[in-house]
Write a structure and sequence with these properties.
Helix content: 40-55%
Number of strands: 14
Number of domains: 2
Radius of gyration: 21 Å
Distance between the termini: 40 Å
Number of helices: 13
CATH topology of the largest domain: Aspartate Aminotransferase, domain 2
Oligomer: single chain
CATH architecture of the largest domain: 3-Layer(aba) Sandwich
Strand order of the largest sheet: 2-9-8-7-6-3-4-5
Shape: globular
C-alpha cells in the first residue's frame, strides 16, 4: 500500500518525529469502528448514504448532549447543538460567518498554528494576546479591546484553547476564567472555544468548558472526536445559543450539502449506544498518560541545564522553553542530528514570545520510543 498517496504524515524509519500531533495507528479502534459500521448499516441502510439534516444526525446529537450534561453539569438543548466535520471545518465556518473584512480576531500567543492558517485565509486582523502558566492574559486582552473600540474598530471574536492548549498544554486557571467571564460581560466579546482535548485528561478531570460556565450567547464551543476517537472520521460538534446554531446550520454550505459528517455520525452513535466509546476514550487516556510520563522522565536531566516545561495534564503536547542562550533553530538542528524532530515556537506565534521554545508531541510513539527520543534530545542538547 502506497501510504504517500493516502496519509498526511509520512513516517521516516529511524526518525522520532515529535512534530506531528497525530495518533499512533496501533491505538485506533479499528475493530470497534468496523463492528459499529456494520451494525449501523443493518439498522439504517440507505438512510446513512443520503443527504442528512442540516444540524446533523439527531440521535447522535442527543447522545452527545447527554454526555456533556453528565460531565459538565449543563445539557445543551436540541436547538443548541449541531454536528461538524471536526474543529478545522467548524472554525472556518464560524470565521466565515462572524468575521467581516478587517475585523479583529484575538488569538492566544502562542496558539495552534493551523488555526492561524485558517484565519489567515480571511481578510481579518489577527491580534495575539500573550499567555503564561495560567493561560491567556485577560488583562492584556481587556486593554486591547478598549483600544480597538476607542478607535472604532470592529472585533469579531476571541479564538482560545483554554483546556490543554495546543501548543503549550496549559489550562486556563479558574481565576483567569472568572476574569474572562467578567470581561465578556463588560465588553460583549464573542468567544470561540476550541475544546478538542477535553476528554484526554490524565491526572484529574478538567474544569468545565467556558460554554458551560459563561452566559448563553457568549461562547461558541467547538468539540471534536478527532482526538478521542479517530481523526479520519472527520466529525465533531458545536454548542452555542439557539440563534448561533440557527445561523451556522442555516448557511448556504449546509443548505447545499446537508449536515456534516452524516455517515460517521451513525457509526459514532452505535459506539455510544454499545458502550464502546467510553472504553475507547479511557484507553486513550491511559496510553497518552504513559507516553507523557515516558517523555518527561527521559527529559528530566535537561532541567539542570536551564530547560523548563509545565507538565501537561492532558492533550498531546509538551512545550519546552529553552535557556536564553539557545535558539529554537539551533536546538532543532542539534536534535535532528540525533534523528529526532520537533516544531519551533515561531510557528505558533504572530508576534515575538520573548523566549525560545519547541513543541513535542507524545501521541505518535510508544513509551519505549519516547524514552529513546527523550534520551537522544538530552544527549544532543547537553553535549
Amino acid at each position: 500500500m502506497d501510504l504517500s498517496r493516502i496519509l498526511q504524515l509520512q513516517r521516516t524509519p529511524g526518525v522520532f518525529d515529535l512534530a506531528w500531533g497525530h495518533p499512533d495507528l496501533s491505538l485506533l479502534p479499528v475493530a470497534d469502528i468496523k463492528a459499529a459500521t456494520l451494525s449501523a448499516l443493518e439498522r439504517y441502510a440507505g438512510v446513512m448514504l443520503t443527504y442528512g439534516i442540516d444540524r446533523g444526525v439527531g440521535p447522535l446529537r442527543d447522545m452527545v448532549a447527554a454526555q456533556i450534561g453528565q460531565s459538565e453539569g449543563v445539557t445543551p438543548q436540541p436547538s443548541e447543538i449541531m454536528l461538524s466535520a471536526g474543529n478545522s471545518q467548524a472554525l472556518s465556518q464560524v470565521a466565515m460567518l462572524y468575521a467581516a473584512p478587517n475585523d479583529v480576531v484575538f488569538v492566544e500567543n502562542p496558539t495552534y498554528h493551523l488555526a492561524l492558517r485558517i484565519l489567515r485565509d480571511l481578510p481579518v486582523r489577527i491580534h495575539p494576546i500573550n499567555g503564561d502558566q495560567d493561560g491567556l492574559d485577560v488583562e492584556e486582552l481587556g486593554q486591547a479591546i478598549d483600544s480597538y473600540r476607542a478607535a472604532g474598530q470592529q472585533i469579531a471574536f476571541l479564538y482560545t484553547i483554554p483546556t490543554y492548549q495546543n501548543p503549550t498544554g496549559v489550562t486556563l486557571s479558574a481565576a483567569r476564567r472568572d476574569a474572562l467571564r467578567e470581561l465578556q460581560a463588560r465588553s460583549g466579546l464573542r468567544i470561540v472555544e476550541d475544546d478538542v482535548y477535553r476528554e484526554l485528561w490524565f491526572d484529574e478531570k478538567p474544569l468545565p468548558s467556558l460554554w458551560a460556565t459563561f452566559p448563553r450567547g457568549s461562547v461558541i464551543r467547538l468539540g471534536s472526536f478527532s482526538k478521542s476517537l479517530a481523526p479520519g472520521l472527520r466529525i465533531g460538534f458545536i454548542t452555542a445559543d439557539t440563534a448561533t446554531i440557527d445561523r451556522l446550520s442555516g448557511c448556504g454550505l449546509l443548505d447545499s450539502g446537508g449536515g456534516m459528517a452524516h455517515f460517521p455520525a451513525f457509526i459514532l452513535a452505535e459506539l455510544y449506544s454499545n458502550g464502546s466509546y467510553d472504553r475507547i476514550v479511557a484507553t486513550y487516556r491511559q496510553n497518552y498518560a504513559e507516553r507523557r510520563n515516558a517523555l518527561e522522565k527521559a527529559l528530566q536531566p535537561l532541567y539542570a541545564h536551564g530547560y523548563t516545561w509545565q507538565p501537561p495534564h492532558g492533550g498531546y503536547f509538551l512545550w519546552m522553553r529553552l535557556p536564553p542562550t539557545i535558539t529554537a533553530s539551533s536546538a532543532l538542528a542539534r536534535i535532528r542530528a540525533k534523528s529526532v524532530d520537533a516544531l519551533p515556537a515561531t510557528l505558533f506565534s504572530s508576534k515575538p514570545l520573548g523566549y525560545e521554545a519547541i513543541r513535542m508531541a507524545y501521541s505518535l510513539y510508544t513509551p519505549n520510543e519516547l524514552s529513546a527520543a527523550g534520551s537522544a534530545i538530552v544527549a544532543a542538547l547537553t553535549s
